[in-house]
Each structure stands twice: as structure tokens, then as C-alpha cells.
TrEMBL record, chain A:
Tryptophan synthase beta chain-like PALP domain span: 61-386
Catalytic activity: (1S,2R)-1-C-(indol-3-yl)glycerol 3-phosphate + L-serine = D-glyceraldehyde 3-phosphate + L-tryptophan + H2O
Coiled-coil ranges (or none): none
NCBIfam families: trpB
UniProt gene name: trpB
Organism: Chitiniphilus eburneus
Family, per entry: Belongs to the TrpB family.
Protein name in UniProt: Tryptophan synthase beta chain
Automatic annotation (TrEMBL), chain B:
Source organism: Chitiniphilus eburneus
Pathway membership, UniProt: Amino-acid biosynthesis; L-tryptophan biosynthesis; L-tryptophan from chorismate: step 5/5
Record flagged with keyword Lyase: yes
Subunit details: Tetramer of two alpha and two beta chains.
Catalytic activity: (1S,2R)-1-C-(indol-3-yl)glycerol 3-phosphate + L-serine = D-glyceraldehyde 3-phosphate + L-tryptophan + H2O
Keywords noted in UniProt: Amino-acid biosynthesis, Aromatic amino acid biosynthesis, Lyase, Tryptophan biosynthesis
Active site per database record: 49, 60
Name of this protein: Tryptophan synthase alpha chain
Family membership noted in the UniProt record: Belongs to the TrpA family.
InterPro entries noted in UniProt: Aldolase_TIM, RibuloseP-bd_barrel, Trp_synthase_alpha_AS, Trp_synthase_suA
Role, per record: The alpha subunit is responsible for the aldol cleavage of indoleglycerol phosphate to indole and glyceraldehyde 3-phosphate.
Length: 403, 267
């Protein structure tokens, strides 16, 4: 049995067990060294951390509340579901916690230009937002398919002054946007800071994105005590790259008795092969985007095109720390299909008056399944990582409604 | 002495520099690759770099990205690439072949299985773009045990402090990326290449090839004045992209013009 009380990852070179690391072309290695050194200085600098906390409180609106979804829990008839309301953050998702941290780092490092990749557009919006806030030039790479299915967010980014570049290579989704952002970074490495949006990529990104997102779980630990006098029995979060999940899981790793459950995008169903669930489908480890992790690939090592109703989960890999948490059996990973996520989306709208993001709806879908199997004194805490306004055109299209 | 060492020592004794063309295996279709490899040798190639197609070529510009996509449309796998090298070897026992690509296809095959198969096929060296020295220890040991050279990239951003690790693991030659950017970029600055190479040579005894941004006979000649080898990729892949008609002849003729210019480099 692993000793989770002494969990201390990654190692100094960014390895979470066999996962993580720094797999990039030579040109970027020195920039990653510089980032690692600057990050270590920053988090030990009281002024930097005070500014980060100030921004989270006054600009983002933290702490985000925890809300007891009582009507929905009653309807399900099992465990009580509580929601960590990251959807109430400024910009409507958890992504902004990380982009503030990284924009402050960029400013500290003297970079005037930031780039970002985005899937659903939430990280792109959060990056464009902080770029405007701190006066940085911002370019966001987004798969051409995602540009089409997330048009409200594309317009938001433009309003915020960012340039949005539609990427038409490969599968035209998140992984291709990340490839293109890497190409930009290698070309403009002196002037440019790359704000990676999830807990993946080369070290130190998986670590620093996690650290900036951990505010979610840290708040929960206090809020749950205030609300019900104890910690939840299970914490449930959706996992694409997995930044909202690692942010709520990580502070609970050393808390005994709290199940951590990551919910991947099951797409049309794991049996169809059309999904984005590398952990649940037992994909092999591989190397992509700077780190080793479980990766959806064919037997020749080519990356497989993924499928999900949710652009933010439509990614063939997963943050390396999730791969590690799976291996050491501290977290469990399951999948919810498009249809299950859509049903949970509607449930939350109707029973609680909250329109959740399609990404978060995957976590809700699994939470409702799990709740139904548990007694009513059990507590499930779901990270409601984003709001669903951006998904309204997608939902309307799927249901044949003309807006 | 390895085939790569032999090439560099012969050229050095003639005061000449190596010409290293790159094409992507399986582009425009698998049946053509071996013939194109021979055509490159006929044009004066000293070493061949053969690209292993990958679905996510992060370090490549649009030209080589498209080459990968064309090859992958034919489902060209790493094993097939090795079969192409084996076929090439039936008629050419001397020209070294270096595989250039990304880590994951090699990871998927497994280092040991890959090294055994590559050696058997007649591969001489391996360049894995996204496997820097820090992560290459294990792979390096396996390749060395099978007599394969591991070629590493060095870049304009590489500080002196990082050269030690590369020098310890590298063999065959090192590949200096002439600019900050992806393959096929067009802002080659010979003066900065020359000054960086002078620094590299203080730490490395291996020959140094220079690539990225070399597009014609003139830029090849100027690079040959400061480097031990000239790598040309995107420009040749553009030739492949222009169509199959007369392709082998066009590749031979283009390389021959580059070769001729390089041979005047230090005259």
C-alpha cells in the first residue's frame, strides 16, 4: 500500500513515477529551465503570492461557494451532491485561476507576448482576459473544428483583444492547437510566454498548473467543514487534460477516506472506439506534447483522433499526474458518454437552475450514477468546473433547434 | 569504424563537407521512397536522413507536416520505414541512413525491439526530435549497445552549460538547428551560425551538421564554409510535393547543383 500521507510529486526533473518529464525539441529546453527557476523563485516570494491571492479574491471573486444540490439529490434518491461552483468565477470556469498565475509569471519574466491553446475556448478566454488585464499581447490557437463549435467563446476572445488562429492541421482540435502553439513558441521563444491551460506539457507545466489550481481543493477542505463538519466521501471531477480535477484532488490526496474519481469523455461509448478516455480505456503510455502519459494511439504509435461532445475533453492524452494517480490507485477513473453528459446537463438546468459546461456535465453524470448507489448520508462533492453558456449553440444543434 | 564515421573522415581528408538530404519515408507514396533515396545518392548525398512520419510533428513547419500527412494517408509505420531501408541497402551498402522523427513511434515499438530491427535493416543513426539528452539516457544505452548512433539537436538557445550532457550521449554527428523556429523557416543568419559553431566546437569533437532554413546552392555553400555537414529538408520535400513526374531526376539535379556549390565553399 502506498503511503499517500507522504505524497510528494513530481521529482526535481518533473517525473511522476514513469510519467511526466521534459520531451521537447532542444530549442525549448533552456526556456523550460528558465521557467522552472523563475517559478520556484516566484512561489517563495511573498509579494508574488500576495498579488496572486489578491487577484483571485478581487478579480476572480474567490472563494467560489459550495452549493448543496438538494433538489437534484432528492430526485436521484441517494447520496447528497454538493457542487464546487467554479462556474461562478470571472470568465465562467476554473481556467482563470491558472492564467492569472501564469500571466503574473510572464510579467515577472519580462515577456510582453503570451500564447495559448484552447479546446472549448475557456482557457483561451481566460488567457485573453488576463492578457487584457496585464497589458500583454495575446495569440490563441484553436482547432478549426472547435472554432466552429464554440463560436461564442471565439467572439469573446476577440472582444478581449486576442488574435484567434484557427488550426486546420490534423484533427483540427485541441491537440493540433497545442502543436501549433508549440511551433509558435519555438519561433518566438525570446519574447513569448506560453500559457498552457492544462496540467500537461513539459515540466514544469504540469506542476505549476496544478499548484495554481489547488486553490479549488484547498477552499473545499475548509468549506466542507464549515458546511457539514466533515470532508466528503467522494470528490468527482471531469478529466480531459485534467486541470480542474488535479486542482480539487491534490489537496485531498493525503486525506484518508476521500475517494477521488476522475470522469473522462466516453464519447459514443468506449466499445465504439470513438471517445477521449485514455485512462478508462487502458491506453498504453506514450510521449506527446512534452510529457509521457497514458495516450490514445494506434499500434504504430500514431496518435488517434478522439471524439467527445465536449471540446474541452477532446484530447488523446491526460496530465501525467493523473496517469500516476491511476497507477498508485489513489484516484479512480471512469468515463461518461456524450448521452450521459447531455442528460446530466439537462438535469442540472431543470432541478437546480444551473447551466453547466458540457465538460463538467461528465462529472455530474457520473456523480448521479454513483449517488444512486449510496445511502443518503454519503456526500459527493462535484467540481462544477465551468458554466454552459458557451455550449448553448452545440446543444441546440444536437437537438435540432434553430436559435 | 561506423559508416557515418567513415563518411566524415573521408570527406575531411578531401576538405569537403557532407551533404545530408532529408525526405519523409512514404511521401508521396511508399512505393517511391527507395527510388528517391537512390536518386538523392546519385545527386551527391553523403548521408540520408529519412523522416519517420508522425501524426503530431510539433517541430515541423507546414511543408514537412504535409509530407507526414501524405505518408500517413498510406498508413506508413515505423516497421515499414525499416523495410524501406532494408530494400535500399540491397543496392547501397555504403551510404549511411539516419532516421529522423519523434519519440512516440519508437516508444510504441520499444527501444530494444526498435534497435534490433533498425540495425538489421541497415540503419546507422537515429534522431528523435523530442528526446533531449535529459530523457535519452535509457534509449541511448540501448542504441549504443546495438551499434547505432544517436544524433542530438543543438539550438541557438543552447547554453554552454547544456553541452556536456549532449556531448556525453551523442555519437555520429550533432545537428545544429540554425534558427529559432520550425523546419522550413526562412531566416537563416550565417554569421550567428558561425559564431555559435565556434563555441560548440570547443566542447564537441563530433562533426557538426547544420540544418533548418537552407534552401538553395548559395545558402548551402555559405553554411559549408563553417560547418561539417549541410542538411536540406523542406526544400526537397517541396520538390516531392510538386508532383511525381520526373521527381527522381529533379531531386538528383537539385542536389547536384548544391553539391557543386558546396565543393567551392572552401576553395
Amino acid at each position: 500500500m502506498n503511503d499517500f500521507l507522504r505524497y510528494d510529486q513530481p521529482d526535481p526533473r518533473g517525473h511522476f513515477g514513469q510519467f511526466g518529464g521534459i520531451y521537447v525539441a532542444e530549442t525549448l529546453m533552456p526556456a523550460l529551465d528558465e521557467l522552472r527557476i523563475e517559478y520556484e523563485k516566484a512561489i517563495n516570494d511573498a509579494d508574488f503570492m500576495a498579488e496572486f491571492r489578491y487577484e483571485l479574491k478581487h478579480y476572480v471573486g474567490r472563494p467560489s461557494p459550495i452549493y448543496h444540490a438538494k433538489r437534484w439529490s432528492e430526485e436521484i434518491g441517494g447520496a447528497q451532491i454538493y457542487l464546487k461552483r467554479e462556474d461562478l468565477n470571472h470568465t465562467g470556469a476554473h481556467k482563470v485561476n491558472n492564467t492569472i498565475g501564469q500571466a503574473l509569471l510572464a510579467r515577472r519574466m519580462g515577456k510582453k507576448r503570451v500564447i495559448a491553446e484552447t479546446g472549448a475556448g475557456q482557457h483561451g478566454v481566460a488567457s485573453a482576459t488576463v492578457a487584457a488585464r496585464y497589458g500583454l499581447e495575446c495569440v490563441v490557437y484553436m482547432g478549426a473544428e472547435d472554432v466552429a463549435r464554440q463560436s461564442p467563446n471565439v467572439f469573446r476572445m476577440k472582444l478581449l483583444g486576442a488574435q484567434v488562429v484557427a488550426v486546420s492541421s490534423g484533427s483540427k482540435t485541441l491537440k493540433d492547437a497545442m502543436n501549433e502553439a508549440m511551433r509558435d513558441w519555438v519561433t518566438n521563444v525570446d519574447s513569448t510566454y506560453y500559457i498552457i491551460g492544462t496540467c500537461a506539457g513539459p515540466h514544469p507545466y504540469p506542476m505549476l498548473v496544478r499548484d495554481f489550481q489547488c486553490v479549488i481543493g484547498e477552499e473545499c477542505k475548509t468549506q466542507m467543514i464549515d458546511l457539514i463538519g466533515r470532508q466528503p466521501d467522494a470528490v468527482v471531477a471531469c478529466v480531459g487534460g485534467g486541470s480542474n480535477a488535479i486542482g480539487i484532488f491534490h489537496p485531498y490526496i493525503d486525506v484518508p477516506g476521500v475517494r477521488l474519481i476522475g470522469v473522462e469523455a466516453g464519447g459514443d461509448g468506449l466499445e465504439t472506439g470513438r471517445h477521449a478516455a485514455p485512462l478508462t480505456a487502458n491506453a498504453k503510455p506514450g510521449v506527446l506534447h512534452g510529457n509521457r502519459t497514458y495516450l490514445m494511439q494506434d499500434p504504430d504509435g500514431q496518435i488517434i483522433e478522439t471524439h467527445s461532445i465536449s471540446a474541452g475533453l477532446d484530447y488523446p492524452g491526460v496530465g501525467p499526474e493523473h496517469s500516476y494517480l491511476k497507477d498508485i490507485e489513489r484516484a479512480e477513473y471512469v468515463a461518461a458518454t456524450d448521452a450521459e453528459a447531455l442528460a446530466a446537463f439537462h438535469d442540472l438546468c431543470r432541478y437546480e437552475g444551473i447551466i453547466p459546461a458540457l465538460e463538467s456535465s461528465h462529472a455530474l453524470a457520473h456523480a448521479s450514477k454513483l449517488a444512486a448507489t449510496l445511502p443518503s448520508d454519503q456526500i459527493i462533492l462535484v467540481n462544477l468546473s465551468g458554466r454552459g453558456d458557451k455550449d448553448i449553440p452545440t446543444i441546440a444543434r444536437m437537438e435540432g433547434i434553430q436559435l | 569504424m561506423s559508416r557515418i564515421q567513415k563518411v566524415f573522415s573521408q570527406l575531411a581528408s578531401q576538405q569537403r563537407q557532407a551533404l545530408i538530404p532529408f525526405i519523409t519515408a512514404g511521401d508521396p507514396r511508399p512505393g517511391l521512397t527507395v527510388a528517391l533515396m537512390h536518386a538523392l545518392v546519385a545527386g551527391g548525398a553523403d548521408i540520408l536522413e529519412l523522416g519517420v512520419p508522425f501524426s503530431d510533428p510539433m517541430a515541423d513547419g507546414p511543408v514537412i507536416q504535409r509530407a507526414s500527412e501524405r505518408a500517413l494517408a498510406h498508413k506508413v509505420s515505423l516497421r515499414q520505414v525499416l523495410a524501406m531501408v532494408a530494400e535500399f541497402r540491397q543496392r547501397d551498402a555504403d551510404t549511411p541512413v539516419v532516421l529522423m522523427g519523434y519519440a512516440n513511434p519508437v516508444e510504441a515499438m520499444g527501444y530494444e525491439a526498435f534497435a534490433v530491427a533498425a540495425k538489421a535493416a541497415g540503419v546507422d543513426g537515429v534522431l528523435t526530435v523530442d528526446l533531449p539528452p535529459e530523457e535519452a539516457e535509457e534509449c541511448s544505452g540501448v542504441l549504443r549497445a546495438h551499434g547505432l548512433d544517436q544524433i542530438f539537436l543543438l539550438a541557438p538557445t543552447t547554453p554552454e552549460s547544456r553541452l556536456k550532457a549532449a556531448a556525453r550521449l551523442a555519437s555520429g554527428y550533432v545537428y545544429y538547428v540554425s534558427l529559432k523556429g520550425v523546419t522550413g523557416s526562412a531566416n537563416l543568419d550565417i554569421d550567428s551560425v558561425a559564431s555559435k559553431l565556434a563555441m560548440l566546437k570547443q566542447h564537441l569533437s563530433l562533426p557538426i551538421g547544420v540544418g533548418f532554413g537552407i534552401r538553395d546552392a548559395d545558402s548551402a555553400r555559405r553554411v559549408a564554409q563553417v560547418a561539417d555537414a549541410v542538411v536540406i529538408g523542406s526544400r526537397l520535400v517541396q520538390e516531392v510535393e510538386a508532383g511525381e513526374e520526373g521527381l527522381a531526376e529533379r531531386l538528383t539535379a537539385f542536389l547536384a547543383s548544391v553539391r557543386a556549390a558546396m565543393d567551392t565553399a572552401r576553395a
